[in-house]
Structure formats: C-alpha cells, structure tokens
Specification:
Elements lengths: L6 E4 L9 E6 L2 E5 L7 H10 L7 E3 L5 H4 L2 H4 L5 E3 L1
Parallel strand pairs: 3-4, 4-5
Antiparallel strand pairs: 1-2, 2-3
C-alpha cells in the first residue's frame, strides 16, 4: 500500500513476517523492520516493483524475529542496520 509516492507499507503474513515500511527516495532506500531471512526475497521483489533497488538501511524497532531476523540476509548485502 502506498502512503505517498516515496513511502509504502508491505503487509506481512501472520506471525511469520510483520509489516514493513519502505521509504524509497533519491538518497537511498530505507525499511523499518525486516522479518525472517526466508521472507527477504519476497519483500525485496515487492520493493523493486515499487521502483526501489538495494536496501541501504533498515531500522529494527524490536529484537523479535519478525522485526529483525532479516538482518541475517540483508547484512551480507551491505545493508546498514540500526536498532
């Protein structure tokens, strides 16, 4: 769901993955929360469909797996994580 041209919400699937906010702008791509590593290809595909590329930053709002476990997949791709 698009909130603005640059701010979007990706809805998760039950307890497996929470919701993700994605800010896609000229300065890069920032997401808020990143669920399990197995979900990373799905939300990365959704972000590309919205016009985004590589995820530059992720802000983890909580240490629970449905908020931060995706760091395992994004970290090796040079995504900066902030908790």
């Amino acid at each position: 769901m698009s909130v603005t041209d640059q701010l979007h919400v990706l809805f998760g699937i039950g307890e497996v993955a929470g919701n993700i906010a994605a800010s896609i702008g000229e300065d890069g791509l920032l997401i808020v929360d990143d669920p399990s590593p197995s979900m990373a290809p799905l939300y990365k595909d959704s972000i590309q469909a919205l016009g985004g590329n590589d995820i530059d930053f992720v802000i983890n709002t909580l240490w629970h797996f449905d908020h931060a476990d995706g760091d395992k997949a994004l970290g090796p791709e040079d995504t900066w994580s902030v908790a």
